[in-house]
Write a structure and sequence with these properties.
By secondary structure, the protein is mainly alpha-helical. 78% of the residues lie in helices and 0% in strands. The protein has one domain. It contains two helices and no strands.
Length: 68
């Protein structure tokens, strides 16, 4: 595994961690008890974009790793 593949995998892993954190934040927002305490973070958008980025980066790194 060369450096560029390793960097793609690391960036994909970080994006997956961000997606996980955004998913947890969105879940907490949806289950809040006080409906008047509205947050300002767009958790759904952050989750979608981070998950998309993670899928692309991890897919590219897996393709490069399997190619040799």
């Amino acid at each position: 595994m060369d450096d560029s593949t390793r960097y793609l995998a690391i960036a994909g892993g970080l994006a997956a961690l961000i997606a996980l954190a955004a998913w947890i934040g969105d879940r907490r927002r949806m289950r809040r008890r006080d409906l008047d305490r509205v947050g300002f973070m767009p958790w759904t958008t952050i989750f979608f974009l981070a998950l998309l980025l993670a899928a692309i980066l991890l897919g590219l790194s897996a393709r490069a790793w399997l190619a040799g």
